[in-house]
Amino acid sequence: MTKSTIIKVLVSTLFFLVFLLYLFMRSFPASQKMEMHVPAQTHRLAPVPVSPRPCTCPPGSVQLKDQIPEDQFDKVYQRRKEEFEKWKKRTSSELSKLLLAPPNSPLQYPIQGFTVPPLRRCPIPGLKLYTGEQSRYKVILNVRNGLLSADASLFTGEVIVKGDGKAEITVESSSLKFLNAVLASVSYQSSFYHVHTADLASFSFENHEAQFPIIIRQPQLPVLFDMGADISSQVSITIKTFLRYDNLKVLLSSIRRFYPNITVIIADDSIEPEKITGENIQQYIMPPAQGWFAGRNLAVSQVTTKYFLWVDDDFIFSQSTKIEKMVEVMEAVPELDVVGGSVQGNTFHFSLEYDKGDETEGGCLYRKSHGRFHALPGYPQCYLTSGVVNFFLARTDCIQKSRFDPLLKRVAHSEFFMDGLGSLMVASCSHVSIGHQPKKNSNQYNNFRKQTGSEQAFKYQLHFFKNNLKCIKFG
Amino acid sequence: MTKSTIIKVLVSTLFFLVFLLYLFMRSFPASQKMEMHVPAQTHRLAPVPVSPRPCTCPPGSVQLKDQIPEDQFDKVYQRRKEEFEKWKKRTSSELSKLLLAPPNSPLQYPIQGFTVPPLRRCPIPGLKLYTGEQSRYKVILNVRNGLLSADASLFTGEVIVKGDGKAEITVESSSLKFLNAVLASVSYQSSFYHVHTADLASFSFENHEAQFPIIIRQPQLPVLFDMGADISSQVSITIKTFLRYDNLKVLLSSIRRFYPNITVIIADDSIEPEKITGENIQQYIMPPAQGWFAGRNLAVSQVTTKYFLWVDDDFIFSQSTKIEKMVEVMEAVPELDVVGGSVQGNTFHFSLEYDKGDETEGGCLYRKSHGRFHALPGYPQCYLTSGVVNFFLARTDCIQKSRFDPLLKRVAHSEFFMDGLGSLMVASCSHVSIGHQPKKNSNQYNNFRKQTGSEQAFKYQLHFFKNNLKCIKFG
């Protein structure tokens, strides 16, 4: 053939190739170029951020360590450190580690929501390799605290599975379709019983590795309260009393004016207890002067209704003490645990600002009077906050989030909301209120009630240890 | 120039192009070919698996609905449904949804561990685009319940940010380097206060979209107990008594033989209470016959030590009642909430098998006597299980996971562990035991103690409602 023919052939081939090249250039994933320079390990498990810098105590804070007698400090400090370590172990898991999804990985896998009951085999959803023609495909999956299995029975000879029933499994095939079919059958089983923990799976193909969490959770049995038909089957009134029977009687008769049948639970640690009787009135006699929070805890422990209404023994019910309105808010926003009202027009709510600081030194807490967040949707009279006044409606099971610490014998209130910070959802509402009886002066009562210096010091020592705090500011 | 020269040029160009093409073919990511056929949306949020099929009651199960009086059934069933809906709302969040990581996405993003306090601005770690040369890059990030912001101040003119301070932000640039620098500055702030919830972020570039969770968590204040120096500062003994003062006195003196100072808390609902006195013995007087679990709840509510030891009023301490050994196990495995011992050589532990079934119909529960899981590492005498005998050491704050339901007045025990299923970590140990006093026959006591048919029916009605169950089998 002539040279011109050769040229024609060459030129056309050339154009064809250039066109082909152009096509590839277009379809070529820019990402991939970059990916070549990105070693897979940069996408491995990122380290947990180390414990943050010490927190700063706002001016006017109480330095709690100064409240611990010098000769005891080292021992107390050591014991607190040990308890805090155990607390961390109870409250953290693999789930707190930071994980990143690696870019340009041909692997598909679950990043959230794969939850298995302990010791039960469950298929892992979404495992798949998205890659193109090649002679052989091999993926590896491994876990730390469980076993993996895969069903390749339909693909004998086509798919090779190694490590079936072990912590690391390899699936290999010359067919991507068959490989993915077997990946879809891979299941996980935890090796240990735990009610709530996690395992970490690593899934890899060639130089691509991805890690994802497996949540191990024993399904919880629901614990529901029957609301019954009326307010008496929904709410109980809880009272702690000490010496002030005259006040208590005024309160009780005011309750009965508006709520004739509602159950009233009274925790009484008076020195010489007087018998209080009446329909649906339950009196519990404690050892004398056992204390304020012990009494609150006792009263709440006896509640059988979904909610309890906390009132002090010198309060007095009025027209505007509408428990139903508080129940309405709670039912409309089921996440709420506590809804406070107002005492003689004052809501006395406060917010808590907490910086956990350096864990061995302890955190910084700021109790901000009148502090609050935003209004509840649909309830402009109610604001989310951290703590409320002595008059509040609470879910009986909120005690499963925070306790009235019986170590607090005299003056105490905010402490319940401090211990519940991060657990309790609290709102303060101005549209329900209760009255306060005129103050009387009983010396015997005041002697117990007023907080001595040593009691104040004890409270600070308690915050230092119990809450792992460095300082508190009461603003 | 001559044709031959042209041919040479063409041929060499041809070879060069073929070589170029070969290089591309090699570096070309097989995965990408496949990716073209995979529409991004198949990787979007996968639906939450719908409520499972009804569970099957094992033979010998009690059908709980048959225990509800027919005329009340519809109302009760409706109320249960409503309470269960609220319970679901309280216990679930975006975190329960299944999410898959899309393959071959050029995006890097956090899949786990990005936790922010409510209403606080926090930088999102790991956001990055891994893609190659192109004239312009544009990524979009959006959230549902928060605001996003980015700092492009150093790149004015180079990077365009749209929607700063809004729920959707767009970052655009002709420089990948600058774009990623701005992505590294992107921060999230929740719009609502909540102690524990989640937001869902969507991150996209061209046809690639990835979704990842943002956990919103108010940091919790730790609540630690001071172990002090000796067993008396670590454990309190809790007892519920009714009429059997002779038994109680035998128990108390046996306790004092081995533990002279340990605090003993007694909840007493006897018809005619007798005063019980003694160093570190606290007696609480309840309304007459208030009930078994009410008394247990009362006693535990008064505990100020890290642990409490539960004993019945007709038990008796012996040489082998070594509380220290139980404390040792608890301290070695901080996740444990309850450690049971043996009563006269019997551990009486049981496991609970729970299938939540169809949520409106209810779940199936099987209490398997002698059921247990595996031994505790390092403690071959201790096995993990779901419930234990009446003699156990428990963390005082385990009551924040399960309550002794005061509605259970007479025969009750497993109910505490049922309500705590999925929350309580329970172990049964055979190396610590307590004795049982010889049974006496008091008619008055037996009249109260023995369970009447109506009480049995009430318990089944309670399980039906409270635990949203269809049936229970006691094996």
How would you characterize this protein structure?
Two copies of one chain form a homodimer. The first copy, chain A, is α+β, with helices and mostly antiparallel strands. Chain A is 26% helix and 29% strand. Chain A is built from ten helices and 26 strands. In chain A, strands 14, 15, 16, 17, 18, 19, 22, 23, 24 and 25 form a ten-stranded mixed beta sheet that branches. Chain A is elongated. Residues 20-50 of chain A have low confidence and may be disordered. At the A-B interface, helix 1, helix 2, helix 3, strand 2 and strand 3 of A face helix 1, helix 2, helix 3, strand 2 and strand 3 of B. Strand 2 of chain A pairs antiparallel with strand 3 of chain B, so a sheet runs across the interface.
Low-pLDDT segments, ≥5 res of chain A = 20-50
C-alpha-based Rg of chain A, rounded: 33 Å
The fraction of residues in strands of chain A falls at: 25-35%
The count of strands of chain A amounts to 26
The main β sheet of chain A shows up as: 10 strands, mixed
Give the largest interface.
A-B, 138 and 137 residues
Q: Indicate the multimeric state.
A: homodimer
How far is the first residue's CA from the last residue's CA of chain A? 100 Å
Shape of chain A: elongated
Average residue pLDDT of chain A: 89
Structural class by helix and strand composition of chain A: alpha+beta
